[in-house]
Amino acid sequence: MLTNASLFLYITVTLTFSGLSECRNNAALIIIDMQDCFISGGSLAVTGSDDIIPIINTIRDKYQDKWSMVVLSQDWHPTGHVSFASSHPGGQSSMTLQYSPKGQLCTSESINVSKFPDAISCQGIPDTKTLSQVLWPDHCVQNVTSGPSSASFAPRLKVEGDDVIIQKGTDREIDSYSAFFDNGGFGKTRLDDELRARGITHVFVTGVAADFCVYFTSLDAQELGYETYYVMDATKPVSDGTYKTATQNLAKKGVHLITTDMMPEIFKEMTQDHSGGHRPLGLSILLPLTIALMIEIVL
Ligand code: VGL
Ligand code: ZN
Description:
Blueprint: H1 2-23, E1 27-32, H2 49-62, E2 67-75, E3 94-99, E4 129-134, E5 164-168, H3 191-197, E6 202-208, H4 213-223, E7 227-236, H5 240-253, E8 256-258, H6 263-275, H7 281-298
Bound molecules: pyrazine-2-carboxylic acid (VGL) and zinc ion (ZN).
C-alpha cells in the first residue's frame, strides 16, 4: 500500500515537472552593442542610436516579468584589430581576408605581418575560407572608457548586476558581428550555452547596428532554433541599403520583424502556447504510462 502510494506520488511529481519544464516558454531580451563607440560622439556613431536607448530601457522595464534573462553584447576589440582600417595599408573601405579551416588568418600582400604576427602562410592548405571584411574606424577598444573609441555601455542604458554580458570581436585576427559566432563561424561565444542553461525559447533582439550585429545575431539565433524577434523600432542601421537587404533576408529566414507595440500580443500568445498547443514528447509518453501503471496498481 505504501509502495503504491509512493509510486503514485513519484509518477505525479515527474509528470507535473516534466510537463512544466517542457511546456514553458522563456524569453530573453538581447541588447546588442549599445556602447559609447556607437552613439553620438563615438567613432562609429550610428545615426539615431541615442534615440533607441529609452526605447530599450522601456522594453526592459515594461516586460520585466517576462525576461528570464537580459543579455548585453559588447563589441570588445583589442588595439590593431583586423576590422580597423588603421591596421591595413591603402585606405580601402573593405578587403578580402583568408582563413585556414581552423580559423587562422592567412598572410597575403594586403596583410601587414608586423601587425598580424600570428598570420600563417596558407599555401597548399585546402578548404581555406574567404571573408569580405568591411574596414571601420578604430572603435570599441577593450578597456577604453572615454573618448570616441570607448567600449563602455551607453551611460543612459540600464544595466543590472545579473545581466549576462557577452564580449565579442576579442580576437585580433577575426571580426565578430554576431553575438553567437565569429564571422567565419570558427569560434562560438558563451551565449548559446547561457540561453540553453536557462531554457530560453524566445529571443528579442535590439540595439545596433540593425544591418550588422543585430542582423547577424538574429540570423544565428533563428538558425540555432530560438523563436527570434527583431525589434525594428529598437534598432538603427549604419546604412539604408544594407538595412533593406538585411531585413528582407531575416523575413525570408522566418525571423519575426516586429515593433514594440506588438509585444503585449506576442507575450499573450506565448502564455497560451504554454497550456495548450502541442504536447511535448515527455508528456505524451508519460501520460499513458502513468495511466497504465495506475490501473495496474488499482487492480
Ligand atoms: C558593429 C561594425 C563594426 C555592430 C560592430 O555592432 O553592428 N558594426 N563592429
Ligand atoms: Zn566592431
